[in-house]
Amino acid sequence: MIIKVLKVLIPLHVRLKLRRVQAKIFGIENDFKNMENPDVFDKIYREGTWGRSLDGISNSGSGSHTQEVINPYITGILSFLLEKKPSLIVDLGCGDFNIGSNFVSVVDQYIACDVSNVIQMRNRDKFSLLTNVEFKLLDLSKDDLPKGDVCFVRQVLQHLSNADIKSFSEYVNLNRPYKYLIITEHLPGNDDFRANLDKGTGASTRLMMGSGVVLHKAPFNLNFSNSSELLEVDEGGGRIKTTVYEF
After folding, report:
1. Domains of the chain and any CATH numbers
2. What is the pLDDT of residue 21?
3. DSSP track, the chain
């Protein structure tokens, strides 16, 4: 109750400033220090760090289940897919597949990748009737990536360290595995935020540091032919922005 009262009394910008101070003093992601990426995200799903369903099953959190957030995304992506008509979609960081399952019917093949074996074992069981979907265990910062027409990376990079993100961007720059790369990230509400501050790989995002991931800026420097903003939704003291990079 006290926490709820404080949230009402303390303005949002003050709370965000306090979070940034806390991050500087205590650091963030200490619970995942020295852990490999598969172990980090297995721990998140085992413990329900991002949230749980009404029946107590851990899930990918509010960003994958809040209707005000996911409905505009699903509508925008479906419109994009119906226009571009891709045959093969690659989903890097598919999570509990509550989002990706909406796009399976408009493509021939869907490769849903995640670093967590906990969530992928559950996905294979829950979505076993989807014959055109392959659930693949994969770390996008270390492994070879499946090629495809369109690749989704939805609110994934925000949880990774700069080293992990840079490894991914360098792979894309070198191999050009996709025609369209659709990146969704939780960013601060203001446009003059400092992009790409580093953090450890884990459950939190850079929002508490007043930062966010912008893949085409240093140190990641994604190379692309064209880019466009697909949609933007206000959420949690910031905005969830979806950008289409074309190669």
Report:
1. 2-246 (3.40.50.150)
2. 46
3. -HHHHHHHHS-HHHHHHHHHHHHHHH-S-GGGTT--HHHHHHHHHHHTTT-B-TTS-B-S-GGGT-HHHHHHHHHHHHHHHHHH--SEEEEET-TTSTTGGGSGGGSSEEEEEES-HHHHHHHHHHTTT-TTEEEEE--TTTSPPPPEEEEEEES-GGGS-HHHHHHHHHHHHHH--EEEEEEEEEEESSTT--TT----SSS--GGGGT----TTSTTT----SEEEEEEEEEETTEEEEEEEEE-
